[in-house]
Fold these 3 entries.
Entry 1:
Amino acid sequence: MSEKEYCNVAEIFGENVFNDSVMQARLPKKVYKKLHEVMEEGRELDLETADVVAHEMKEWAIEKGATHYTHWFQPLTGVTAEKHDSFITAPMENGKVLMSFSGKELIKGESDASSFPSGGLRATFEARGYTAWDCTSPAFVRQDAAGAVLCIPTAFCSYTGEALDQKTPLLRSMEAINEQALRLIRLFGNTTSKRVTPSVGPEQEYFLVDREKYLQRKDLIFTGRTLFGAMPPKGQEMDDHYFGSIRERIAAYMKDVNVELWKLGVSAKTQHNEAAPAQHELAPIYAPANIAVDHNQLIMETLKKVAGRHGLQCLLHEKPFAGVNGSGKHDNWSITTDDGINLLDPGKTPHENIQFLLVLTCILKAVDIHADLLREAAADVGNDHRLGANEAPPAIISVFLGEQLQDVLTQLISTGSATHSLSGQKLETGVKAIPDFMMDAADRNRTSPFAFTGNKFEFRMVGSQDSVAQPNVVLNTIVAEAFAEACDELEKAEDFDMAVHDLIKKYATNHERIVFNGDGYSEEWVEEAARRGLPNMKTMVDAIPALNTPKAVALFEKFGVFTKAELDSRVEIEYELYAKEINIEAKAMIDIATKQIIPAVIRYTTVLAKSINEVRMACDADVSAQTDILKEVSKLLAETKEALGKLEKETATAAKMKQGREQAVYYRDEVTSAMTALRTPVDKLEMLVDKSMWPMPSYGDLIFEV
Ligand code: ADP
Ligand code: MG
């Protein structure tokens, strides 16, 4: 490796971000101070200040090579959207142009919103949508083959102020938890912290396959997952990929990804191979929720973009290969004050940490009451293949506490107070050269959807291609509600110590049913959860109604996170999205089966039939093997043809239905079973037909030969 290929991370980190140090260096002191006040106190930015900021931002961006700017936003499509405007003004009399960017252009953009999902919030003739600068997430310059663009993170709203994006409710929910958490810590005598912010660290899983092979798979191109494919002789049973050493081609890719991300101020930290062959993971250092959500979008974009340069294709789908582990996104979540106190830090002796116990039991209550909403927040079409499929957490929400906290909880429930905390044991390695060390007080549980991991919760249900915005909107709001209800009682209590003691015991007792420390993959848990009355929503379609139940509407309206109209619109959008995605998958299957698979199988049977005749003519050999194969293949071909006809019929019926729940249910029940019925004979055929005649690379080619 030449010297130039090494990079100095400290030097490049954040070099394309209009971050605090750039602002401090470039903005007049007064403007810098004002902007900070706006960021910290959430006040409105005046136009005069905005003009100065915009001008400096533009100058800085032009130095980085930027010719355009864009309001970068996150509509309800799951990916980011942008519309580029160049900095040029109308040509002057001398034919030259000026480069300009005003405060108004920085703060507010207007965008034809009619092509983004709005779920009836905005008729297409009222196409106006507004993007508004989220000044708490820094602007950045994105450089790539298409040039350089100044990207301004924004929220996206309709003309009448309804949220059309992921960002707006997220910011509203951060406000809600800030307010309620401050109330709570004030009760415990904290007078110094000014702000409480949810911190989020999303771990991103993904697959890498060879791009040439990818291009031969229409299913991957159109749907992001394989719709056909027989299992290779080797799967992931040897566990030799997980944390295995990273091959050079992949390592070179990861290095490039990291450099790109570091320049954008994304603190890419951990990378490793994941459980399945060709599967990997990237985790950044945690950040305030809105920044973490933006950064996760940048991570997904960068993973895809850089792959192309290495002749690779990055698959972010939750289940690119049936029968092989899928990909998720663990959403690590905690709440921290501006002066660095993590409210989820139990300390060494949690039983004495009354504030922590209240926070913890409030969270148990929130998760128990709103388990349906959390489940819904992790629902997307791809994730239906993962949740409950013995690899990802089950579709049932439960909380894992670990031995130490479970013990404290048990003490609280049985005696009303906790008197001791279990501590970590000494881990004896049995190797003299390695010193013994203290183990954590609790082990991990990989099967739990919502696990306490030392000083944070890890929500492990989220899908790999989904935005982490919605899970965090839900977490922030349900915990804000639990805090608010606790504060309502405690603020009017005469004897605070007594009241808080009683409240912790009450919450622990009433919501103990949500705690489960056992094997979440087991059949016994499904039965036990049913006995406990916990919801088990197996598919996205089952989960969607949770969004606008009277309970959800009351919750979100109370904290100004969503109006009922916004929730109703999201319900509509999700049904529509579900139907559209399954429709595309079904149509892709029909296309591939009709134009690629059936013709290939016919070619093979023709060749086989000819060869049987030729062998017969040449000699009197036994051709029963060939004949058997020909019969078997022909039988499967007939089954394929029949299943194809059924899928065509079901898809046509579904597509004609009125958009909404009924249509989504039809796609889920009728269309997906017709898809499975078509896949079965095709996968059997793949195992019989001459590999050189099969029209696409196999699972083995895709995941073992990267
Ligand atoms: P794991 O062993 O589960 O991979 P890590 O410590 O590597 O745990 O953390 C995984 C993710 O959780 C990272 O993005 C990390 O920055 C984030 N994380 C760590 N501490 C916190 C916290 N207090 N709040 C939110 N996220 C956190
Ligand atoms: Mg983890």
Entry 2:
Amino acid sequence: MMRKKWGFVLSSLMSVSLLLTACGGGGGQQAAQPAGQAPAESAAPSGDGQSFVFKAGHSLTEDHPYHVSLKDMAKRVEEKSQGKVKIEVYPLSQLGAERELTEGLTLGTVDMVITSTAPVTNFYPKLGVLDLPFLFESRDHAYKVLDGKVGQDILKDIESANIIGLAWAENGFRHVTNGSKVVKTPADLQGMKLRTQENQIHLAAFEALGAKPTPMAWTEALTALQQGVVDGQENPAIVANTYKLYDSKQTQMSLTGHVYSAAMILFSKPVWDKLPADVQTLLAEEAKVAGKEERELMIKMEEESLQVLKDNGMTITEDVDKQAFRDAMKPVYEKFAGQIDQDLLNEILNTK
Ligand code: PAF
């Protein structure tokens, strides 16, 4: 039975050999590239025509749920395929930062990625609706939307950007950190130099708040914080913890929760299209399990992360004037009204 299931038929063998020819042949065991650089050679599946090795990249550390869930997925996939499908997981932007990773998916130079959605919007603009500040009331609201019709339609439709949407995962609610002052209202952010993600809506949001946002890849953010190029940044508590932002001059975290940063497990369509159906099914099923596991780990780690930040001298400010932040975001909704699918936006806002 297993032999039949994994005994690849002639068409599979042909597609793999075509792929290997197109990619210059079996690069599956190449060393990871230095941080911030896209791999020079294709990371397309490789092997002897019966087995596959995929490279999966992300920007976070090995103790972050992005990594843990992908490693667990790799283990299950290897076991279930009896060693014929392997996934190598590269943390710390070794295969590139999130924008580069996403581009790599569209080109077929990166196989698989877990990433926050903000940089993906640059390749699939419909996703921009998720970048709107204060869109989701709660984690449950986000889950209902992403696990419901809206989220599932997006996972299918992102194929139009040459990317296969496998599953939703989570980066978390984003909070502002800085090294100089307690932030409770937008007025406290006036003139503050903040690193933001490379995303037009995030940029406009922080401009509307009176800050001086500087979009850059996460690979550049730590140096920018350490060298004082920026005073602060915004990310979930788990990122602040796993990257020890208290060692990068960050003494304050304000629980602004201004954006729910969803994450996605994505696959390269150019690579996917050459895979046998049973490999696609296995990857699709196990990515869903990984997305679920990742979210569960995120929930578990959140409180723990806030405690670690406190233990390392950071002040966590909870009494943020969220209404003032929401009010300041109205011009952002107006500015992007023409670019955001309003039906989609209403569907999200009306999901209870
Ligand atoms: O700020 C970012 O770029 C993202 O939140 C990060 C840290 C890479 C995680 O997805």
Entry 3:
Amino acid sequence: MISLPKKVTIIEVGPRDGLQNEGQFVPTNVKVAFIQALKKAGFTEMELTSFVSPKWVPQMKDAAEIVDRCRDDLRNIVLAPNRKGIERVLESNCQAVAVFVGVSDTFNKKNINKSTAESMAELVPLIHELKERGLFVRACISTAFYCPYEGKVDPDRTVQLCEQFVEAGVDELSVADTIGMATPLESYALFSKMKDSFPSVLLTAHFHDTREMALANIFAALQAGVDRFDSSVGGLGGCPFAKGATGNVATEDVVYMLERMGIETNIDLQQLIEALRIVEPYLSRELTSGYYRLHKQE
Ligand code: HMG
Ligand code: MG
């Protein structure tokens, strides 16, 4: 008999991971309307934007305005890669921050222009400061399974990096298959190990759907006891600095699968469609999630 969680928390990352890879700037008003429509769907946690260099990711240049206009009592998470990003987070009065590091040095260098060790040397004292100020801190672990430049990543290296974050005091680990190469057995193995190793932090799985294995990987992670998943409405997303990365697993497909299996998400599927309608005219790519495609044909 398979044992699965009865309830799952979905962290919507569409406004951040979903939009960061869009070449054309999505107007700030559209982003705000998109976020507000998503909030109506029932999310309690969402990545709103990122305080990264606007030269590196011009799409995120309106981060301060987004935070200012979308603030409420929910867990609104913003990404920050370095001290400058954290300073901007504190100025914006945001209460939840995500730092991000790749297990693979080559990826980390391409993404944030530092080795993994250099990033950790900068981030660990910053995490202490953030915790002293009472912020919620999430650590996003990129290339946890595979790196587009270095190939397969040793799971022990992923666990060791997570250990450093847990020792630094983070509240959550979001462990990512950045280029969608993991298979369900790898997902089960890594997340089982993570569950055993880090019982005191929130553990979240972040799957990109490059090879259409994300739902299978989620099913495997559920069996390992994971009950938190990042996803992006419409299957939008991808890291601009990870060669071959495409969208996150689509939120509507995850919600559909979980609800059909009797696992509660508290997310309103129809409202996800409403949110997608707001942003779709501004996107460069076609939305291919199974649920949305069928919905449009009806
Ligand atoms: P750098 O060029 O080495 O930075 O980039 P620098 O410290 O030399 O600064 C260069 C300029 O950028 C300076 O401005 C700084 O002030 C400014 P200038 O003097 O030239 O006018 N700057 C900043 N401005 C605003 N906000 C900041 C900031 N930092 C410096 N935070 C840097 C280093 C980290 C800034 C750059 O590499 C960067 O912004 N990288 C972000 C890349 C990114 O956003 N990637 C996508 C998110 S991660 C992801 O998607 C993966 C995830 O989904 C999980 C998964 O799927 O794997 C989370
Ligand atoms: Mg991602």
